[in-house]
Amino acid sequence: MPVVIVGAGPTGVTAATRLAQYGVDCLVLDRWTDVYPQPRAVHLDDEIYRIIARLGLADEFAAISRPTLGLRLVDSRLRTLAEFNRDPEHSAHGFPQANMFDQPELETLLRANLVRHPHAELRGNAEVTDVAADGTRIRVTFTDRSDGGIHQVDADYLLGCDGANSLVRARIGSTMRDLHFQQRWLVVDIASDANLGQWDGVHQVCDPVRAGTYMRIGPARYRWEFQLLAGETANDFDTLDKLRPLISPWTSTVPVGELTLVRVAE
């Protein structure tokens, strides 16, 4: 196999698609069979949009994304301190400069596109357990999680797209620089058909007591992020009633029955 890619997230599937477009055979291995269902990343810029367009997915991505107006820095009373505008139409790269999206939707789109390319194969339930140089090639060992079978595949090149806890990075002796970020943040995703009547961009709340972020991801999806204070955990905010004091500056006029809590995470 010319190329083996470990990890079928957005990076791994994008790399596989680009290789396949050039006629390079590649195998993508991922320990899971399906797209991870929880929202995580929500924004990409016009340069990443160019890559998506090169995959042949510009129109499909436009249908599931939402161009946004930029970023506002606001105080604790949501008064604007500064504003950084982004073009929601077309930048020098040909696409909106700031785009909100739902990561599971994007990953589903990328995987559906990958199967159109005969030079690429995605194998789920394949947990890579070892990577080793074997002469001029790389030997990748993985376990089929469906039956426990152990398999090996040799490749000319190996791409490690397996995230922050990368086994590939560990096996090849590479390192990741740790910036020792100490802050703990609460991430809240809420679905609602209600229009919150806010400026259609990202709001960064510059509150010295509790910093926060608000953004509209899609027609019926909103995200808030709040800095957790000492002693607080995500479990302290795992219901809409517990979240109300934090999100009420944006949702005070919306009945609680029109809000659906999708995810709370730290």
TrEMBL record:
Pfam families: FAD_binding_3
GO MF annotation: an example: 3-(3-hydroxyphenyl)propionate hydroxylase activity
Source domain of life: Bacteria
FAD-binding domain residues: 2-199
UniProt keyword annotations, A-Z: Oxidoreductase
GO biological process, alphabetically ordered: 3-(3-hydroxy)phenylpropionate catabolic process
InterPro entries, alphabetized: FAD-bd, FAD/NAD-bd_sf, PheA/TfdB_FAD_monoxygenase
Protein name: FAD-binding domain-containing protein
Lineage of the species this protein comes from: Bacteria, Bacillati, Actinomycetota, Actinomycetes, Mycobacteriales
